[in-house]
Amino acid sequence: MKALVATLVVVWCSTAAAQSARPNGGYIGRDIPVLEIDDCRPTTSKDPEKEAGEHFERGQLLYDQGDYPGAVKELVSAYCLAPHYLPLMSIGLSYERELEYEKAIAYFERFVMAVPKDAKPSENCAADPQQQKATIAARIRVLESLPAKVRVNTEPPDAHIVIANEARKEAESRSGKEIEIAGGRYTMTIDRDGYQTVTQEIVTEVGKPYTFFEKLEPRRGRVRIHIVPEDARLFIDKRQVGTGVYEADLPGGKYTLSAEQPDFITDTREVEVIADRDTTINVELNPKPQIGRRQLIAYGTIAGGIAGGTLTGAQNSGFYDFIGVVGGSLAGGAAAWFGAGDVPLGTSSLTITSSVFGGIAGFAAASIFTEDGNVLAPALGGGLVLGALGGYYGGEYFHVRPGDAAVVNSGALWGSVTGGLFSISFDSKTQHRSIDAGIVLSGLGIGMVGGALLAHNYTVSRGHAALIDTSGVLGIILGLAANSVVERASGDTSTARSDERTANFALGGLAVGLIAGGVLTRHMDEPALSVTPVMNKAATANGSTTTTFGLGMTW
Hints:
With about 550 residues, this protein is of the alpha+beta class. The protein has 4 domains: about 1-145, Alpha Horseshoe (Serine Threonine Protein Phosphatase 5, Tetratricopeptide repeat); about 150-215, Immunoglobulins (Immunoglobulin-like), CATH 2.60.40; about 220-285, Sandwich (Immunoglobulin-like); about 295-520, no CATH class. The protein is about 55% helix and about 20% strand. It contains 14 helices and 16 strands. The protein has helices at about 1-20, 50-65, 70-80, 85-95, 100-115, 130-145, 295-310, 320-340, 345-370, 375-400, 400-425, 435-455, 460-490, 495-520, and strands spanning about 150-155, 160-165, 170-175, 180, 185-190, 200-205, 210-215, 220-230, 235, 240-245, 245-250, 255-260, 265-275, 280-285, 530-540, 545-555. A 4-stranded antiparallel beta sheet has the order 3-2-5-6, with no helix packed on it. α1 (about 1-20) packs parallel to α2 (about 50-65), α9 packs antiparallel against α10 and α11 runs antiparallel to α14. The termini are far apart. Mean pLDDT is about 80; it is low at about 1-5, about 10-30 and about 525-530.
């Protein structure tokens, strides 16, 4: 052992001056559970002290050359062959140069503990072990107080950072700024308004820099989307997420929702999902409108000719009548061709019937004040034109569906028919034409208003409206048939009485037919009969409960 000490002292004496002249820097931490010297293998060397001296000498040489990992390897081998306190300090210095501060502090502490209290320099040039021990102890205290430096970058930036341990909060700052803390184990919390909080464990060593990056996820909200029809496809931000019903947790924010189905108008809207809240969205797709351009062009040509002929009929000239009919036909057809475009079927239907009833209304209104044909004919033509314009622009503004138009048309039709039958029932032959015209006009107005109110409050298909109209026609026919039977049975052939009775029976048959048609077809536009399994709880005879299974139906 004396030979080993002498060898180490000689090597130390040759390098002590150079080492003391070098700047000592770096930072030292703690918490190294196992060191290399704690895992030494048994030696088989015949002269371990001599071999230890050789390893120590090579280690010092590598240290001077800047090969610190190589120096550590040689110095550890020297210590394992012949344990001595001098290699411990050299290993600590090597790890310090390598920025392995935790291991450096551990070896420095081993060195301080390994130096005997009575250790003295063995040679004149050797350093005093007690002085080295005091120097390294002071070095440990200084370096242990140096902080680790932590920088946390986040996306989005400006997040709130808290670093704490079980005892207290160590540091608090914002993302992107450097945070100085002592070495150790901590819980780091990253928080930002509108984003999910991130918590993670970190271990820092004193004097070392650390950089962390976190991409923060927005806080989520629950979204429930229901689409009618249920087989429609649902897209969120152009990505298909399902059909019919969709339920998921989404990050809070704005999204583009799109629902599409063949033969339906695609519904695209901006929706906002609010974090930590439930958002329910109902989407009902509207069917693509049927196009009524052809029928509108055909009617425009015919009605234009009628309107033109009636407007020029007051001239009592065949030439003017011909010009009016031809010009009106060309004007009506051209207006429908160039002005209507791809007009929806509902608007086209409403335009046609509004024109017809507008003509009736114009004729009836004029009849209240005069019986002059030169006035009645232009009133009829003007009513056709004004009715067509009102129906077209009203249908475009209110986006009238074909079923809605059919209901309005049915109301106007049966209102006019009812008014006409009432005028006959009130013994019209003894009344002036103005009274008859007023009754018809009143029936037309009431019918149109009633049809508009029904269309506004109920959804009725064209087929449904057609069936009710058919019921009304059949009711009139049955009423007329009943009148014929009664007339034959009574033998009353008076013309006035016959007309009044016929009108009354027709009115009764009309009312019965419309009511019966409405009642019998009341479920036509509703879903079909559905059968679903049902599970319930029921009480038994002894007071306990049992589970029952069955079928539930709605109609």
